[in-house]
Amino acid sequence: SRLTRQPDLASFQQSPAQVALEVHKLVMVGEGGVGKMALMTQFTYGRFAREVERSIDDSFLRRLVVDDVPVIVQIHKTDVNEGGLLQDREARLGEGFLLVYSITQRSTLNRIHTHHEHILRIKGPGGAGIIIVGNKCDLEAEREVSLKEGRDLAKELGCAFMETSARDRISVGEAFVDVVRQIRRLKNEVPS
Ligand code: GDP
C-alpha cells in the first residue's frame, strides 16, 4: 500500500484554528526490521501496513492532544544496523527517542544500551525523553525476549518501557504519548 506524501510542517501547522502549536521532534531508533516504520504508520495513519513504500522516508507528522493540550509530533526514523551507531546529527535533532527492539529477535535488544548511552552523551542527562519499546508483542510464539528482561533493562537505564504491537495496535499511541509527557516535564523543570 502506498502512503500519500505528507504536507510539510509549515502547512501542517497553519490550520485556521491553531497558531504556533507546540511541536516536538521524535526519533525512532533501532535495528532494521524491528517495526519502526510500522509503529509510525500505525500511530500516524491508524493502520498496519505490511509493506510500506521504502522510498518514503521523510518524517511523519501527527497532531494530537495530550493532557488537553494539542501538540504536533514530527517523527523521524533511523536504522542502526550491524553495530552501527546513531548519528550525532539525529541524536541532536531529537527531543524524544523511542528505542525499539523486537521481542522476537534477541540481537535487536543488545544495542539498546549503547544507543541510550550515546543519546545521554549528546543530549546530557535529562536532555531528552526516552522510552524503550519492545515491539511485535503479538508474536508470542516467536518470543525471544521476556517482558521482564525488557523491563529490567529499562529500569537499569532509568527509562520508560512498553511492549507494543504495531500490527494489533497495542500500546502504540501510549508509547508516543509517554514521550511527549516526558518532554514537557523536562522543559518545565527548572535546572538545579
Ligand atoms: P523497520 O525497519 O524497523 O522500520 O521495520 P518495519 O516497520 O519495516 O517492519 C519490519 C517487518 O516487521 C514488516 O514486515 C512489518 O510488517 C513487521 N512488523 C512490524 N511491526 C510488527 C508487529 O507489531 N507485529 C508483527 N507481527 N509484525 C510487525
Automatic annotation (TrEMBL):
It comes from the Eukaryota. Keywords: GTP-binding, Nucleotide-binding. GO terms for cellular component: plasma membrane. It is found in: Cell membrane. GO terms for molecular function: GTP binding; GTPase activity. It is a lipid-anchor. GO terms for biological process: signal transduction. This is Ras protein.
